[in-house]
Amino acid sequence: MDLQLKGKTALVTGASRGIGLAVVRALAAEGVRVVAAARTTTPEVVAAGAIPVTADLSAPAAAERLVTEAITELGGLDILVNNVGGGDGGLSGGFLELTDAQWAQVVDLNFFATVRVTLAALPALAAARGAVVNVSSIGARVPHGGPIAYTTAKAALTAFGKALAEEFGPQGVRVNTVSPGPVRTDMWESPTGYGAELATAMGIPHDELLANLPTAMGMVINRLVEPSEVAALVTYLASPRAAATTGTDHLIDGGAVKTA
Ligand SMILES: NC(=O)c1ccc[n+]([C@@H]2O[C@H](COP(=O)([O-])OP(=O)(O)OC[C@H]3O[C@@H](n4cnc5c(N)ncnc54)[C@H](OP(=O)(O)O)[C@@H]3O)[C@@H](O)[C@H]2O)c1
């Protein structure tokens, strides 16, 4: 199927690795010119043919500068993929262990970064009758299954996408959300990521946690989701083929969430 994306322009946040990098690759493969934003530039982003722009999106002023730079590079903006999120660890503690500063850090990266980038990008997106795809989490729907600050921020992000779709639909801007279950990225696999932290907190080896995760999460595919699988869904939602799809939230979780 031709996704009719050739020649379009996109900004992807959290793009140096994991799901963001997979989205960059998938969009580029469809002929989209992509600006890839993260704090660091990786060889993989450059190899994908994207234009790397460095930005620390936990800082409030970074969003506007990033969007300005992206629009200057691309000459407009058809697609915004708000993928940045997760964090650099510190997610595994319970409610009583979280400080005000940790709440602010998690909510900044997993919610306000998307609010700020979207605010800066909306005039260009409206001019292009463009599309926004936000990367949330199944934790927004099943909050007991994840760290409290993270799932609370993601629940806000999912609600934000729905509200934005309502407000800007009449101007031709579509907004959709993708909510993955466990995806095989550094978040789970890195020795300093959330998965390693969780294993330590549970008193089990990291590799044992990863091996048992699909079953523990009720994933009927019996494996983690691949970043490229999330990227394929994001790419479809960003494409004109999904012109009638807006205000939706799509699970991609291997069957983990059991409710309708
Ligand atoms: N993996 C999962 O199981 C899973 C499940 C559900 C939802 N998600 C969501 O999917 C999204 C991507 O997750 P992932 O697993 O691909 O994460 P990841 O592998 O940890 O990658 C995170 C990306 O965000 C960038 N980043 C981190 N902090 C940043 C900051 N302050 N400013 C700008 N960029 C920053 C990182 O690059 P730099 O370090 O170079 O900045 C990297 O490119 C996140 O929103 C996450 O919450 C993931």
Task: Sum up the structure in keywords.
13% strand; Rossmann fold; alpha/beta; globular; 7-stranded parallel beta sheet; binds NADP nicotinamide-adenine-dinucleotide phosphate; 45% helix; 2 domains; 7 strands; 260 residues
DSSP strand tally: 7
CATH topology of the largest domain: Rossmann fold
Oligomer: single chain
Order of helices and strands: EHEHEHEHEHEHHHHE
How many structural domains does the protein architecture include?
2
Strand content: 5-15%
Residue ranges: pLDDT <50 for 5 or more in a row?
Answer: none
What name goes with the CATH superfamily of the largest domain?
NAD(P)-binding Rossmann-like Domain
| Molecules bound to protein | NADP nicotinamide-adenine-dinucleotide phosphate
Spatial order of strands in the largest sheet: 3-2-1-4-5-6-7
Q: Could you say what the CATH architecture of the largest domain is?
A: 3-Layer(aba) Sandwich
Question: Strand pairing plus helix content: what structural class?
Answer: alpha/beta
Shape: globular
Sketch the major β-sheet. Answer: 7 strands, parallel
**Mean pLDDT figure:** 96
User: What is the CATH C-level name of the largest domain?
Assistant: Alpha Beta
Q: Ends: how far apart?
A: 28 Å
DSSP summary: helix tally: 9
